Amino acid sequence: MKLTPIEKYIKDKVNIHKNGREELERYQLDKIKESITYVKQHSKFYREHLKDINEDSIKSLKDFENIPFTLPSHVKENPFGFLCVPQKDIVRIVTLRSSGTSGDEKRVYFTEKDLQLTIDFFKHGMQCLANKDDRVLVLLPGEAYGSIGDLLKKALKETEIECFVQGVMVDPKVTAKLIQAENINCIVGIPIQLLHLSRVENEIFKNKIQKVLLSTDYVPETIIKEFTNKSECKVFTHYGMTEMGYGGGVECEALYGYHMREDDLYFEIIDPVTGKTVEDGQYGEVVFTTLTREGMPFIRYRTSDIASFKTKKCPCGTFLKTMDRIKGRMENRIKIDEDEFIYMRELDEIILSFEEVVNYKVYIEEGNVIFLDLITLNEADFYKSSEKILSLIKAIPSIKKSLSKNIIEIVIIYSLDDIVINNTMVKRKIHDYRKRV
């Protein structure tokens, strides 16, 4: 089993010699204190947010747990307050929309140095799955300077790996032709879009693709199983978000979980209710702190992503922490009764396991009517699978209990949408259209 290349990259950068974990954590503590000093000097938001914090009093990583969190709402309300450099030094601005409305926008700013740090991570992270014999297709935005596809292409160029950036997939047939023409054997893309590609262009995908890196959204286990068992390709997953500088962690060939970008980011898992750090092996909310960010640093930023740190070492033998695959976002659920919720990840594992389905939408309306809007290859496929899908969903414990109490109703319908792929990076979510009291 090959050691993750991320370890050597971090050891060289941090100048680690013998005591890997101990030296890394000492480096992280020093960088955390430097970052707090930096943001208090240069960021209007943190000057106020951390005014009662004396960084010299942080003697350990445990002490750091007393620092207040940064929330996504803080960024939405005052993105300029986070800037630590003049606007003229910003070379990339990313606007993040969670539901397509201006009220949900966040803006994240990057300097040239920030982008180069991401290229460095991508350069070594991609070596977990690709080498000079591979031809990589990136189905992520890549036209704009500093976009994720642009950074990936630059990183792969430095390692002499051939890379083609098509952008977010719109037409599977066009993508299939490119795969054939350029002899592509490795794809980086969005989980639900690559599932769509594999089901619409099954022969091309099965015969050509040997390796897949799934990124930008959480990855349902059923997608990994299908690609592995039916297409016989090796499936790697990547965890990152724009606020992290795109890259957060990536799996090595052991496929045991993400090895984290611990030179640039410090990760915690907290209890989302108490805010206290949980033990390794326990699930909670991912929180991160940037250690080397120049333009827009974040201190203890709450992500809403659900994950845990592994309690056992990765089979590759690294001293780096290993994070289990993300289980989705905390808010990607709907409340249907007191302490009873429906989670999108539960629906994913059922609905996406049916090969007739290429995507679906789920939303709840007044009267607790839950609509499952299935997007299938044709109407006949919908009738072939819909009753079985509905039966399995009704067996989910929270749904079964609520149905028995006549609290909810479930309606499964055939989507009238054309089978097209939205040219978007917005993550899938459950929509709640009920009026709030």
UniProtKB/TrEMBL annotation:
Residues 98-288 form the AMP-dependent synthetase/ligase domain. It comes from the Bacteria. It comes from Clostridium thailandense. InterPro entries: AMP-dep_synth/lig_dom, CapK_Type1_Caps_Biosynth. One of its GO terms (molecular function) is ligase activity. This is Phenylacetate--CoA ligase family protein. Keywords: Ligase.
